[in-house]
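so im writing up the methods section and need the DMT(Drug/metabolite transporter) superfamily permease record in one place, dumping it here so i stop losing it
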Amino acid sequence: MVLPVALGFTAAFLFAASAALQRRAVLSAADSDSEHRASNHRIPVLWLFQRLLRQRVWLAGWTTNLGGFACQAAALHFGSVALVQPLLVTQLLFALPMASAAVRRWPPLRDWLAALAISGGVALFLSVEGAAPMEGDPDRGRLVVALVVAALTIAALLQLAQNRGPLAYSALVAACAGICYALSAAMMKLTADSLISEGVLATATDWPGYLLAVTTLSGLVLGHQAYGSGSLSAAVAVMSTVNPVVSFTIGLLVFGAVPSTEPGPLAAVAVAGVLLIVGASGLAHSPAVRMETRSTATHGVYPIRGNV
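--- predicted struct ---
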């Protein structure tokens, strides 16, 4: 178990480092927008991507992200999903000091406890048998329904985020990114199965592969927007929570998974929910997180005129 655990923690660290580097690149791109054109749009980072692509910091963040995926794939090869998935949640614990470094303030004890509560809650949820079930033959009709519901939910959350404070705005956008990444995981599962069983030509003429590209790109854009408009640690916490919850819902709706009704798993889910609520409340009221949010909102891509 030593090798998959080490690879899992390494992947979590690389994902957190990637998020921090991408956030730094977004802030730099926003500062270069002297005419404040990006702030006129609902997702300002979309209008800054051309500048992001020319930044070495952003390219370093993307390379680091690829390294994280490689470590995650290796960890899944040597260990089980039930072992590796909870380990990846620790990226929040790595992201917390990286985010605090931007405001030159070491995270206080309450922030560490809040991050531990969130990480523990998500890890406990993922440890429950069938928490992110995507095995078996999916019902494509239900998959289309799930995609429509997800798209409407994302549109509603983005609309709800408008004119909210930077912390709430960043959290809502991060939730949208988490939904996209959960959909991307489902599309990846379908595409991989199609490649193995039907070959390249059949996969190229089927729609899940194209939706994989759309959901992954959408998650990337929304993730950058969340990182660059509020708190990095809060955005990572929201994405780390929403992703497995939506994956669980997709597993029930699309892949025919049956939730456990045993007392042990139900108790674990209840405890996980309490930990998540306590941790989220702690981060939301953290002075360090609020200071980081104010700094990012002033210099980042928070879509209020004059703040970019």
